[in-house]
Amino acid sequence: MSTTYDDDLDHRDERGDELTDDELAEWADEARDRRLGWLMLVGGLIGAVAAFTLVIERMKLLADPSYVPSCSFNPVLSCGSVMQTDQASVFGFSNPLIGLAAFPVVAAVGAALLGGARLSRWYWAGLQVGVVLGIAFVGWLVVQSIYVIGALCPYCMVVWAVMIPLAWHVTLRNAEAGVLGEGVARSGAVRFLRSWSLLGIVLVYLVVVAMITEAFWWYWSTLG
After folding, report:
1. d(CA 29, CA 53)
2. CA distance 151 to 43
3. CA distance 115 to 175
């Protein structure tokens, strides 16, 4: 499952000369950032739509307490139950407003990378702080939703699903590029995580699914 960057490259530039090691490394870095650009663009747009929908649903619920959100389907999948908890407004305002501000930035960075932009090291460091805080907040919300609130918000779960690969790949990119330190960039752990990225992300998803299955088995077992 290892990833290589020169399988489809003929190792020659426009003059037909052999590419140097530095040129090959630069090409590999650009290819990696383009792939990350697609992830950030698509993930950012999906996250922004989910956050925007949650904001609209929350506004409707505030205007009419009897309103049933479009993402409330049953006792477990119930946005309305989640929206009315303290956890839904941790900082004094609706949590989706954070996503509504952050995800368009993610999408814009993705578009810039696809356009060939080369972002400064400090900018990548800022993104790293953002994804770390984002995935930590998502992790807290996952635990709160499953084990404290006892209900799941489908649109929130879309945000969870987006944040996991975003946090993984931004962190991995920064580790490889030396943003997290040259020692980290040279470590075998980084190469291992790159080779097994897909499996690692799938395992995280499976852990969340297992948590949901176990916590709400009392309901799932009544279906069918």
Report:
1. 36
2. 24
3. 23
Position 49 scores a pLDDT of: 97
Give the separation between CA 152 and CA 74, rounded to whole angstroms.
Answer: 10
Domains of the chain: 22-216 (1.20.1440.130)
**Nearest Cα to Cα of residue 156 among 137, 170, 171, 169:** 137
Q: Residue 138's Cα: distance from chain center in Å? A: 10
Which pTM value belongs to this model?
Answer: 0.85
Residue with tokens 């990119």: 173
List Cβ neighbours of 135 (8 Å cut-off, separation of 6 or more): 163, 164, 167
DSSP string, the chain: ----SSTT--SB-TTSPBPPHHHHHHHHHHHHHHHHHHHHHHHHHHHHHHHHHHHHHHHHHHH-TT---TTB-SSSBBHHHHHTSGGGGTTSS-THHHHHHHHHHHHHHHHHHHTT----HHHHHHHHHHHHHHHHHHHHHHHIIIIII--B-HHHHHHHHHHHHHHHHHHHHHHHHTTT-HHHHTSHHHHHHHHTHHHHHHHHHHHHHHHHHHHTHHHHTT--
Decide which of 196 and 44 is more confident. 44
pLDDT in tens, 155-212: 999 999 999 999 999 999 999 888 888 777 777 888 888 888 999 999 999 999 999 9
